[in-house]
Structure formats: C-alpha cells, structure tokens
Amino acid sequence: MAGGSRDRELAAIEYRVNIIRELTSKRPVEREFLDRDELRDLLLELFEEDREEILEDQKLYSTIGILPKETDLFDLLLGLHGEGVLGLYRSEEEKFYIVQEGEELGAEQQRTYVHEFVHALQQQHFDFQTAFDAVEDNTDASTAISALVEGDARLAETVYTFEHMTEAERQVSQGTASQELINAFQSAPAVIQRRFLFPYVEGVQFALSLYQALGFSALDDAFANLPVSTEQILHPEKYVTPDLPVSVEVPDFAAALGDGWSLIRKDTFGEFMLQAYLSAVVPPITAQDAAAGWGGDSILLLEGPRGETAVVFAIVWDTEP
User: What is each CA distance from 182 to 11, 210, 231, 264, 280, in whole angstroms?
Assistant: First the structure.
C-alpha cells in the first residue's frame, strides 16, 4: 500500500473514530508501523524502565506462592506482551506503534489502529497518564484505571467494527492467537494470566455497564471521576454509588523483625488480585464469594539481611468474610 493511500485510509479511520467516540482530535498523533521483532525490541526497552518494580512483584508473588521461585517474571511478562500485543500507545510521547506485516492494512491492523487511536484521544482529553502517576504506589487503583482505559478503547473498537466492517472483516479483525502466544500464556501461572486479561475482560464489562446507561458520555464522566479500586470495576454499582476503599495502617514490622530487615514495598492488593489468588486453590465462584465484601487492604513486602522475604497482609471487610 503506497504511503499516500495508507495515510488517506488512516485519516478516514480517525475521522470515524472521532464520531463514534464523540471526541474531536485536538492535534495530530504520531504513529509508526513496526514488524513483530521491532515491537518486541520496543517492549524490552519499556520493560527495562520498570525492571526494579517487576523484580519487587516477583519477590512478592514468589513469597505468597503465586509464582514458582525459579520463574523470571520479567521474561514471562515480556513473552506475554511481545506475542500478544499488536499495538502500543505511549502517552509520554503521544505516539502509537502498530504491528504490520506486509504492505496491506488488513482488518486486524485497522481494528488495532482504532484501539490505539482511542488511547490518543483519551490522553488528549483526559490526560490519563497524570492519573496513573498519582497512584503509582497503589497497584489496585492503577489496575482500576487501566480497566477503564482499555475497556473504553475495546468498546469503541467493537462499535467501529459493527459500523464500518462487513461480517467477514469483523471475523478477520479478531485475529488468531499464534502458537507462540498460546505457549507464553499457558506457561504463566493462573494469577498472572488473570492479571494480563483483567483490563480487557472485566474492563470491557465495566465500560459496557456505563455505556448502556448514557453512551460514551458516561465514559467521559468516568475519566473525570476515576474508579479508585478493582472492587468498583468488578461491581459497577459500587462505582455508581461510591464504595470507597478503607485506608489500612500496618505497624512497623521491619523494626519488629530485627536488624537487617527493611520494607521493600507497601501496596494495595485489591479485591481482584485477592479473587485471582484464591481462584488458584478454590473454584472461581467460591473465590468470588470469598473476595466479595473486600473493604481495603495493605500488603507489605519485607526483605531480611540474607535476602529472605516476608509478607504482611492486612484486610478490612465491608461485610462478614
């Protein structure tokens, strides 16, 4: 596809998305088309920026039994995203990247382009990156924002496919999981699988619950009044009638454990991660029932003088657990 022809096609897609999402572009968005290997290289660069945080997650997950101690979480996540991601929006650059193999812009690439362009509109109108920065020490709140961001984009791309694609094109646009992606996903522990999918599954259900009431204007309102916990994503009624997390204070366990112990991470686990954690050992419906009623928590990761780790987990409940 010649560059001028592709640019015209992409401009048409952007115009349609402006109408569907009811948001007008404030400025042009940079874009770049990559092959799969180039996107993996970009993801590696981005993951390197978060290596310290990923290592902390690995220590936490291996301590509480989510992750086998010999598993390298960095490599696991890079494999999942490297095989499973067809597009990437970088809010810091206001630029997105799309995987395109060959000259033609197929239905799958068009659908991905719609999704990433919605992210650009979200950043231009709502500055979601500032929202993420404000909760960088609260994984549960950050996951809730991710669910809104991805759920909104998935919903808009779905509307686009029904308004501007034939049935055959819609089928093709969904793509087919490569064997490499299947292998990467199956090699991940169940909790990591659930965390990977959460913004695209529960996030879509949350976005749809708002959209069914008031259309995309309800999503605009949600960006102005962000969900503050995965509890609100799992139970949209707790977002509509706000059920806010309780702040949980925990004593200084590092001092209590003795010399050489230090606090590595203080975070919020959240209802979703609690539910996913329990699902590894009990049926999903039991895990849902057990995690429901979560009111707030604080989870501490501590490290000792010889590299040993300990976790303190304090939860409060809105209802009888």
Answer: 34, 32, 29, 33, 20
Supply 98's token pair: 């799309």
* Distance from the Cα of residue 252 to its chain's centroid: 31
Whether 211 and 219 have beta carbons less than 8 Å apart is answered as yes
Q: Is the dihedral of CA 278, 139, 144, 188 positive or negative?
A: negative
Provide mean pLDDT across the span 31-46: 92
Q: Give yes or no for residue 1 having a pLDDT over 60.
A: no
Q: How far is CA 179 from CA 84, 182, 217, in A?
A: 11, 5, 39
| Strand duo 95-99 + 30-34: pairing | parallel
At 104 the pLDDT is: 77
- Centre a 10 Å sphere on the Cβ of residue 213 and count the other Cβ atoms it contains: 11
Look-up of token digits 């952007």? 14
Q: Please count the other Cβ atoms lying within 10 Å of the Cβ belonging to residue 232.
A: 25
The 3-state DSSP class for residue 106 equals: coil
Rounded to the nearest 10°, the torsion over CA 159, 168, 25, 5 is: -170
